[in-house]
Specification:
Largest sheet: 5 strands, mixed
Helix content: 25-40%
Strand order of the largest sheet: 7-13-10-8-9
Shape: globular
Order of helices and strands: HHEEEEHHEEEHEHEEEHEE
Oligomer: single chain
CATH architecture: Alpha-Beta Complex
Number of domains: 1
CATH topology: phage-related protein like fold
Number of helices: 7
Radius of gyration: 24 Å
Amino acid sequence: MATFEETSIGFKSIFQKTYNDTNAEAKVLATEVKSNDLSEKYAWLGNFPNMKEWIGERDVKALSNFGYALDNKLFEASVTVPNLHIEYDKVGLYKPAIEQMAQNAKLFGSELVADVLINGHVNLCYDGKAFFADDHAMGLDTYDNKAPGVLNSENIIAGRTFMQSIKNTGGKTMRIAPNLIVCGPANLANVITALGKEYKAGGETNTTYKMMDYLILPEIEGLEWFMLDTSKPLKPFILQIAKDGIFESSNDDKFMKDHALFGTKSFMNAGYGLWQLAFKFSGEVA
C-alpha cells in the first residue's frame, strides 16, 4: 500500500517535469521580473538617456518618476484524490490531471500577458495613458500607437515605418526594430499570406516575406493584430513573478472527508513595459 507522503513526492515529480518542459508565449512577449514584495514600482520606465560625446563634466539627466506600480496577485488550482485511491496505489489514474495542472500553471503567465495586450486600449501604462493611445508625449512630439487596418503587407510596412520613426525625449531615435506580429486564430490565413508567401496572388514579389515572425494567441478572438519589438532587454510587457508554479499537498481532510488535496499556486501579475515597442491595428478597413 502507498502512503500519502510517497504519493505527494511522486505527484510533485510529475508536476515539476511537466512544468519545466512546457514552453510559454510569455517568454517571447514579456520581460520576466523577479519580485520580492507585495508590489513593485517601475519608476525607471521611460528614462533612457542616450550616449553622447563627453565634453567637460557629465551631462546628468534628472530621471522622471512615472510611478508605475504593479501589485502581485495570488492564483491557485487544486484537485482532490480519495485516500482509498492512494492506499491502493491507484494514483496513476491521476497522472494526466497533475500534468495538466502543471501545464496550465506554466501557461498562466501567458494568459496574464495576453489579457494586458488585449486590454491595452483601456489599461494605463507608465505615462498615465492607455497603453494603446493617440496622445503619448515624447518631448515635443505626440505619438499614436494604434490605427485601423487589416493584416496585410501594406499595413505591416506602414506600422514598421512608424515605429522606427519614434524618438525619445531628447529627439534621438529609439532604434525600434519590430520583429513579431501577434494575432488570433481568425487572422491565421492573413498572417501566413503576409509573411509566409514569397509571391502575391498576381505573381509580384511579396515585400514582407519572412520580414518578421508571427505568434498566434488563442485569447485574441477578433481580427485585431499587433506589431511588437521583442528584441530588447525590456519587452513591451512585464511578467512580474514572486512565486510561480509552487506545488503543494495536504492530507488535513483525511478524517472528515477522507481525501487528500494537491494543488499549485502562483503569486504574480502582468503589466506594461514601453508603449513605444507595440502598435495595434484594429483589423478593420481604414
